[in-house]
Specification:
Layout (H helix, E strand, L loop, with lengths): L1 E4 L9 H5 L4 E3 L5 E3 L7 H10 L5 E4 L5 E3 L1
Antiparallel strand pairs: 1-4, 2-3, 4-5
The chain binds iron/sulfur cluster.
Length: about 70
């Protein structure tokens, strides 16, 4: 799975970090960065993306097909 954070949309409330702390981290500017997209299963990645209040997380499968949103 591949995960992208649209940093211009990220409002830094860390919902993604709470759900998948091995995948996401906030940087010094309070924006999420992806540490390791493989550190959580597909369901957890989608759950994190759905929980993002700013629709800042895109999830793709290994073929690059968009899974969420
Ligand atoms: S949940 Fe969304 S807005 Fe919040 S830190 Fe993660 S990417 Fe940014």
């Amino acid at each position: 799975m591949q995960v992208h954070v649209i940093r211009s949309e990220c409002c830094g409330n860390a919902q993604c970090v709470e759900i998948a702390p091995d995948v996401f981290q906030l940087d010094s500017r309070n924006k999420a960065v992806v540490l390791d997209a493989e550190a959580a299963d597909r369901g957890t990645l989608i759950e994190a993306a759905e929980a993002c209040p700013c629709q800042a997380i895109l999830v793709e499968d290994d073929e690059g097909e968009q899974v969420f949103p």
